[in-house]
């Protein structure tokens, strides 16, 4: 039996019960994964006067983050909206840098290049691992 001596105490007791009910995150249901993906990349190179020198492209296998993370909304007497929202997003926890070679290079007229300009190396950062993070938290 709960004895309440003031209306404010009743509200506080109700909030505490709701906090306990709403805070049961079930981490087993999260499905944030690092998955393989294919990306088509096109890179243009220009000279110092801004004229197009060559265009290179290619299909590249890269990793991506995909999945669902547990989020919750619960009533709150502290927040201005009356609800406390905890949103979690699936995103990279670590990035690795790779050098990719694009092998289809063309001059401004669309003719395929075969000389030393026939390939182009570019650096690409891709997810090496993905996890659930609080949405909007970019401090990691």
UniProtKB/TrEMBL annotation:
One of its GO terms (molecular function) is neuropeptide hormone activity. GO terms for cellular component: bursicon neuropeptide hormone complex. Gene3D superfamilies: Cystine-knot cytokines. InterPro entries: Bursicon_suB, Cystine-knot_cytokine. Residues 1-24 form the signal peptide. Keywords: Signal. One of its GO terms (biological process) is G protein-coupled receptor signaling pathway. PANTHER family: PARTNER OF BURSICON. This is Bursicon beta. It comes from Carausius morosus (Indian stick insect).
């Amino acid at each position: 039996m709960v004895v309440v001596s003031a209306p404010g105490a009743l509200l506080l007791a109700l909030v505490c019960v709701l906090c306990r009910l709403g805070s049961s995150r079930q981490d087993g249901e999260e499905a944030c994964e690092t998955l393989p993906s294919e990306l088509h990349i096109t890179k243009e190179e220009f000279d110092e006067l801004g004229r197009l020198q060559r265009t290179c492209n290619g299909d590249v296998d890269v990793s991506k983050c995909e999945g669902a993370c547990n989020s919750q909304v619960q009533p709150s007497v502290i927040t201005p909206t009356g609800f406390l929202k905890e949103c979690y997003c699936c995103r990279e926890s670590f990035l690795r840098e790779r050098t990719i070679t694009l092998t289809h290079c063309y001059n401004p007229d669309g003719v395929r290049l075969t000389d030393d300009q026939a390939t182009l190396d570019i650096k690409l950062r891709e997810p090496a691992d993905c996890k659930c993070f609080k949405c909007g938290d970019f401090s990691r």
